[in-house]
Design a protein that fits this description.
The chain is of the alpha+beta class. The chain has two domains: about 270 residues, 3-Layer(aba) Sandwich (Beta-lactamase), CATH 3.40.710.10; about 80 residues, Lipocalin. About 25% of the residues lie in helices and about 25% in strands. The chain contains 14 helices and 21 strands. Strands 3-2-1-13-12-11-10-9-8 form a nine-stranded antiparallel sheet, sandwiched between helices. An eight-stranded antiparallel beta barrel has the order 14-15-16-17-18-19-20-21. A two-stranded antiparallel sheet has the order 4-7. Strand 8 and strand 9 form a beta hairpin. Helix 4 packs across helix 7 and helix 4 crosses helix 8. The longest helix is centred in the middle third of the chain and has 15 residues.
C-alpha cells in the first residue's frame, strides 16, 4: 500500500512492513467479535505507552464509530511547547489517505456516466503527459485507482531541493516529464505496485474531465455533501487555528507540505471527527448520495502478493475467517494516519498522529479491529553494542526491496546508515548481524556468505520477515 515521501519503511516501500503486520493478523486468523473493539481505557493505555513512555509520538487521536455511536480518545499535545490538548477537531496532514477520496471521485463519476473505469487514462490527460503502455494495452483509470498501473511510488528522477517539503518546487509539467522514458513495472492491470504517481495522475484526469480544479471537484462531490467542513487541501482559518505541528521520529518539529500536482495522492488535511463522518457514510449509518459510489468502490477486487489482502478502488481489504476490513493509511514528513471500517460489524476506526515514525499508528488501528497482545505490534527493548567497523563495511551496499524499490546501506564510522529516498536512519547493532532503529519498530538482520560479506538483509516486523537481496 503506501506511505508518503520521506517515511521509512512505509513511504518508500509501499507499506511493505505495514503489510507485514497485516500478514501477521491474517495468518493467525484472529477470532473477531462485535465486542472486539477495545475500551476507551485500553486505548488510553496504548496511547500513554506510545507517547509518554516510549516517546514514539507527540500526540495521537483515536476515533471509533459503532452502532452505539462515536467516541474519541486522545493523548499528547499539538506541540511540546503548546499547552493545548488534541481532540477530534485537531487538524492533521493525512497524506496518502487522500487516495481514498480520489478513488471515490472516480466511483462517483463512473456512476454518473461521466466516464468508465475501463477508459484509457490518457483520454483525460493533456497531450504533454505521455503515459507508458504495454504493447497496445493502455493504462486505464481502474489501473490507477487500484495501483496496478505499473507506475513508480514516487516520480522518477525525483530530487527535491528541500526534502522537508519535497513537492514545493515540483510542478505538473515536472510530473509529466518524469514519465517520458519510464517503463512499466510488472504486468499492467494485474501486479500490485503502490504509486503516488498513479493516484496524482488519476486526480488530474478526473478534474480535467469535470472541467474544474481537483480541490473544487472534491468539495463539490464529497466534502460539502458530507459536511466535512474541516477537510481540504487549502487550510482555512478555522482549520489553521486547530492545526497541529508535525514532528519527525526524533520528535522535532518539521515543515508542512506543499503538495502541488501530487495533491490527489497526498494533499489533504483533516480531523478525526471529519474522517469519522466519512466512515459513518461508508457504513450506512447516515444516508447520503455517496453511499452507492462508496459501495461500488468495493466491488472491483485485485489480488496482492500478501495472503488475505486485496485491493479495491482506493481501499485495501484485509480478509480473515470472520470479516473483511477496508483500510488505508498515509503520512507526510510529520504526520501519520489510519482509517478503516468493517462492513459486517459496522465498526470504523480513525487514528491520527502528529509524528512521523517507522512504527506508525497502523498497529493501533488494526488492533482495534483484531485485538491481539500489543507485544505483537510494539517494538521490543534492544541493547546496543559496538561492532568492528570492518564488519560494518561488509554490509554496505544496495538492497532490492519490493515494488522495484531499493534501500542503500552506508557506513559512517562506527555506525550503519539506511536510506530510502531522502530519509536516512542510523542503525544500532545488538549483535554483529542484527540491527535496529532506535525508538521505532524496525529491525534487520544481515545474511552473509562464507567470506563474511552480506548477500541479503532481512527486515523484521510483527513476526514477519521480508528478505531484500543485495544487488550491488
Amino acid at each position: 500500500m503506501k506511505l508518503s515521501y520521506g517515511q521509512w519503511p512505509r513511504a518508500m516501500t509501499g507499506a511493505v512492513l505495514v503489510f507485514a503486520v497485516v500478514s501477521a493478523i491474517g495468518g493467525q486468523q484472529t477470532q473477531l467479535s462485535k465486542e472486539a473493539v477495545v475500551t476507551d481505557a485500553d486505548i488510553q493505555k496504548m496511547l500513554t505507552e506510545r507517547i509518554d513512555q516510549k516517546r514514539q509520538s507527540v500526540g495521537i487521536v483515536v476515533g471509533v464509530i459503532e452502532d452505539r455511536g462515536e467516541r474519541v480518545v486522545s493523548q499528547g499535545a499539538l506541540n511540546p511547547n503548546d499547552p493545548r490538548t488534541l481532540d477530534g477537531n485537531t487538524t492533521f496532514e493525512i497524506g496518502g489517505l487522500t487516495s481514498v477520496f480520489t478513488a471515490l471521485l472516480l466511483s462517483d463519476m463512473t456512476r454518473r456516466g461521466e466516464l468508465a473505469l475501463t477508459d484509457a487514462a490518457s483520454k483525460y490527460l493533456p497531450p504533454a503527459c505521455r503515459l507508458p503502455s504495454q504493447g497496445t494495452q493502455p493504462i486505464t483509470l481502474a489501473d490507477l485507482a487500484t495501483h496496478t498501473a505499473g507506475l513508480p511510488l514516487m516520480p522518477p528522477h525525483f530530487h527535491p531541493k528541500n526534502p522537508a517539503n519535497p513537492y514545493a518546487d515540483f510542478g505538473e509539467s515536472d510530473l509529466f516529464q518524469s514519465l517520458a522514458d519510464y517503463k512499466l513495472n510488472g504486468r499492467l492491470g494485474v501486479d500490485y505496485s503502490y504509486s503516488h504517481v498513479g493516484m496524482a495522475l488519476l486526480g488530474i484526469a478526473l478534474s480535467r474531465r469535470a472541467g474544474t480544479s481537483y480541490e473544487a471537484l472534491l468539495h463539490a462531490r464529497i466534502l460539502d455533501p458530507l459536511g466535512m467542513k474541516n477537510t481540504g487541501i487549502t487550510v482555512t482559518p478555522e482549520m489553521k487555528a486547530r492545526l497541529s505541528v508535525g514532528h519527525d521520529s526524533s520528535l522535532q518539529p518539521v515543515s508542512y507540505w506543499d503538495t502541488g500536482p501530487m495533491a490527489p495522492a497526498v494533499g489533504l488535511k483533516s480531523t478525526t471527527q471529519d474522517l469519522l463522518t466519512f466512515i459513518e457514510a461508508a457504513l450506512g449509518y447516515r444516508q447520503t448520495p455517496l453511499l452507492a459510489p462508496m459501495n461500488a468502490m468495493l466491488t472491483l477486487r485485485k489480488p496482492t502478493r500478501y495472503a488475505g489482502l486485496e485491493l479495491t478502488l482506493g481501499w485495501h481489504v484485509l480478509s480473515t475467517s470472520e470479516r473483511e476490513i477496508m483500510w488505508d493509511n498515509g503520512g507526510t514528513g510529520g504526520f501519520r494516519a489510519f482509517m478503516g471500517f468493517s462492513p459486517k460489524s459496522k465498526v470504523g476506526i480513525v487514528v491520527l498522529s502528529n509524528t512521523e515514525s517507522t512504527i506508525g499508528i497502523e498497529d493501533i488501528g488494526l488492533h482495534l479491529f483484531s485485538p491481539m497482545p500489543m507485544e505483537t505490534y510494539f517494538a521490543r527493548e534492544h541493547t546496543e553494542i559496538k561492532v568492528d567497523p570492518r564488519i560494518l563495511a561488509s554490509y554496505v551496499g544496495v538492497y532490492q526491496l519490493a515494488d522495484g524499490l531499493t534501500m542503500t546501506v552506508s557506513q559512517n564510522g562506527e555506525h550503519l546508515i539506511a536510506q530510502l529516498g531522502q530519509q536516512m536512519f542510523q542503525l544500532a547493532a545488538e549483535s554483529t548481524k542484527d540491527f535496529f532503529v532506535k525508538n521505532v519498530e524496525g529491525q534487520m538482520t544481515f545474511v552473509t556468505d562464507r567470506t563474511g560479506n552480506a548477500y541479503m538483509v532481512v527486515l523484521h516486523q510483527a513476526g514477519t520477515d521480508l528478505p531484500a537481496k543485495r544487488i550491488r
